[in-house]
Amino acid sequence: MKTYTVTAKRWARGWELHIDGVGVTQSHGLTDAEEMARDYIEMMEDESGMFEVDIKPEIGDGLDAAARNALRAVQEAEQAQKAAATQIREVVGKLKGAGLTGADVAAYLKVSPQRVSQLAPNKQATVRKARQVVRKNPATPKSKSKANRQVSA
Question: What percent of the chain has pLDDT over 70?
């Protein structure tokens, strides 16, 4: 599938859309830039809509780099948050496994007992999840149903 790269540049009345290899059109805002670019490409290139459009806004004044850096920082923070959540769940499980009460774990980690309950491995949920996996996996032998047990008896 063909991809058209569109460089969107601000001007007084909206955005200029520079479509590589095709030409230039305009849109009022970035929200309608893709639609305007698609319409223009279809008209100029006799395309049927089976193509991708990659809008690349250019603001200037260092704002493009600032936006990229901010987005990268957000992604890194999300990854760090996921890693921290995994680590704290593991630690709570190990502390509980070492015999600490929920209240002791809470005091040790400086979190509420309710947070410890949320983070601690739930034995009932683990058993429930295991049962669901067994039901969904046809290769797993199932126990005989009540009707089958009566027939075999």
Answer: 80
**Residue that has been written with the tokens 């193509």 in this structure:** 51
What are the structure tokens assigned to 105, written together?
A: 């774990």
| pLDDT band per the 50, 70, 90 thresholds, residue 130 | low
Domain that holds residue 18: 2-58
The answer to whether 44 touches 38, Cβ cutoff 8 Å, is: no
Is 52 found in the same domain as 6? yes
Question: Do residues 102 and 120 touch, judged by C-beta distance below 8 A?
Answer: yes
Tokens of 147: 């009707």
pLDDT surpasses 90 at 28:
yes
**pLDDT top residue among 110 and 148:** 110
Give the N- to C-terminal CA distance of the chain in Å, as an integer: 63
Please, where are the H alpha helices in the chain? Answer: 33-45, 63-97, 102-109, 113-119, 123-136, 146-152
User: How many distinct structural domains can be found in the chain?
Assistant: 2
The answer to whether residue 69 is domain-embedded is no
Does 76 fall in a domain? no
Does any domain span residue 73? no
pLDDT at 153: 46
